[in-house]
């Protein structure tokens, strides 16, 4: 970005001419960080409006003024306002939602440990009746951090398990109950447009889906999604809504993989429209993602990112700091 900044060094006011190139660089940086395109467009428009005409304080340079506008705007957007911790309640009931493989079950354990460190008693509830391995995984995590897990196997409905788990939590006086849910399936994780002589074709092929470190070979039909909408398994979403209605959580957290990239905006919109999330947990921030998903989450839903997952271990959960995220996104 240095070259573009140099263009600014002689001017005393930010003008359309002297911000043009640097704004282009910023736009590119945001796209490279995987912020979704509509979010980038709206963001850039706001930055431009705020920057133009801005006086440059004596002793500083115009580039400093523009950098400040951009990072202030990023920081504000990602949550200088709004609750960053869990909502209060007795018990606090946290419903976890998200696609399969994003790190939801791991995040349940991390959150449980985080609450335990605040001297709170925590119960976790396993409702993923579709994948017995997911129940086992939660039980194992619970053992490792000394947090009990309520489960009723796979023959009781998830709504019933969640309800009874909360009842159990209340009866035994737990301070917090964390409900793990089945990962929503993403029917169409990307758009394939096969453009042959101007005609769009829907095509069937085999894709290797990597969920939770295991490779699965599956055949499916790619749905060419021209409206740009993400499609998430409808039955699963209805079930999530039913669980939410039954347990009335104090928090509904969407777990988002930081590597999600451009799709984060659609993903967040879908979940927020359907179950009205109270915030998000951004996982896998220890990876090399620049974390553009963070900006998309906040911009689309207006809800805060409450925590970040920064590793596979149970103590790798951090609170979200918008300022740090802003500089990571800008690169
Ligand atoms: P779920 O299907 O959403 O419940 O996902 P899991 O909790 O099973 O996690 C999927 C994989 O991601 C596992 O291998 C986890 O160890 C890994 N994982 C989860 N959170 C993080 C994180 O913050 N950083 C890293 N590097 N790996 C993570």
UniProtKB/TrEMBL annotation:
The enzyme's E.C. designation: 3.6.5.4
Family: Belongs to the GTP-binding SRP family. SRP54 subfamily.
Entry superkingdom: Eukaryota
Ranges for domain SRP54-type proteins GTP-binding: 304-317
Species in which this protein is naturally found: Chlamydomonas eustigma
Stretch of the intact protein here: 1 to 331 of 524
Reaction(s) catalysed (UniProt annotation): GTP + H2O = GDP + phosphate + H(+)
A cellular component annotation (GO) from this entry: signal recognition particle, endoplasmic reticulum targeting
Official protein name in the record: signal-recognition-particle GTPase
Keywords assigned: GTP-binding, Hydrolase, Nucleotide-binding, Ribonucleoprotein, RNA-binding, Signal recognition particle
GO BP, sorted A to Z: SRP-dependent cotranslational protein targeting to membrane
Gene Ontology molecular function: 7S RNA binding; GTP binding; GTPase activity
